[in-house]
Amino acid sequence: MNAQIDWHARAQALKLPNQVLIDGKAGPAQSGKTYEVVSPSTGRVVARLPDCAVADVDRAVAAARRSFESGVWANLAPRDRKKHLKKLAELIESHRDELALLDSMTMGMPISIAAGYCVQWAINCFEWYGEAIDKIYDEVAPTDRGVFATITREPVGVVAAVLPWNWPTGLLGWKVPPALATGNSVVLKPDEQTSLSALRIAELALEAGIPPGVFNVVTGGPAVGEAIGRHLDIDVVGFTGSTEVGKLFLRYSSESNMKPVWTECGGKSPNIVFADAPNLEEAAQESALAIFLNTGQICAAGSRLIVEESVKDKVLEIVSAVGKSLKPSDPLKADTMLGPIAKASQLERVLSYISIGRQEGANLRLGGARTNESSGGFFVEPTVFDRVDNSMRIAQEEIFGPVLSTITFKTPEEAVAIANQTTYGLASAIWTRDLSKAHKVSRAIRAGAVSVNCYAADAHDVTVPFGGYKQSGFGRDKSLHALDKYVQLKTTWMKL
Q: What pTM did the predictor assign?
């Protein structure tokens, strides 16, 4: 990234989206109400957005239904949908800096990470799913000679996508492209804090030739989410967020039209470092980044460092040194690696868990305090707890901040037992040079992804699926498997 760019000047020059986009038209909420978006790095208001309600969700769903039933998108030849999605990928690429700024201003993500990773995910996904569209074949069943049976994939209809605030543009890329690629129309609800980039991408979608009504965006808080979850004319919901809210969407579905709700929820991911790691220093450095990157606001963060007792002190020395070097700072500075917590309420949550850890008897080895308060922002120090028991709340509950719980073990069997003793099962990692041990431990861990001698490197690659076991949810984002969530399988049976 060009360190000479004045990102503050660019931010001030931006024309911020301030209206929802429904049926190809920008406009206010039907009530005229708005809400404030607060900068997590200054505590000041940066935007006001429409505070949507049930009536706005109804309008968006009706637009999506009309566009779907008309066939203006669903009936396009796959090669033609491909052209539009790839064009949108090109437009996102050409507006990379603008979208990165919108995410950094509203979420607090360092601009280098927003531009280099978060927006890049969306580019990769729109391009990849665009390319995949005309390479998916239906099936002919191996029936008796007197019968001809086909199995075909059909779009489900209206798909609602509900996003969290922690990785705005990137997670839009995980949800929207596969839904559009399969011929569906979409109603997107980004988090109320981080809606600006989603609104801008919806504008770019129109420029890319995606017809009005096919991609709609509504803004607002929990009331909008509930209206989506209970809507009788939404066919599928793709959700990423906390386990608590994911359960609400499952309830909304059961109390309405039994729509499938695909959930990617919380995590308390184990990061197991064995004494025979190929490079113990590298393992420790990566373990630090696994929890401190994006200020710990990543569902797959390596929040439990499960380290072999004989090397714990050496590993923690390096982890703590990395933590000390990551000074929370202004996210619009090109060299900032650690920004603020995204919301004041989330800062309170993180600080409360640090207090809980102390009360539970864990040893606070590093950090643990709010910092940079004079900025008005929501900054907190990288925090490391030692002597943590896996039964403690800081080891069992998702904190979603830069707070690491360190737990020791003596045998591989003990490490696996600790790793699996959680209600979550999203990501995990193993550090060992023993190939047999790596295979055995990988198979034993109950998680949707296991990284060996790295941490969550798969998250950047659209070709492999991502999702969890247990209360981390079900269904998979990314890869061809994501397409399965947004299609129905139809059997056509013909007697010859």
A: 0.97
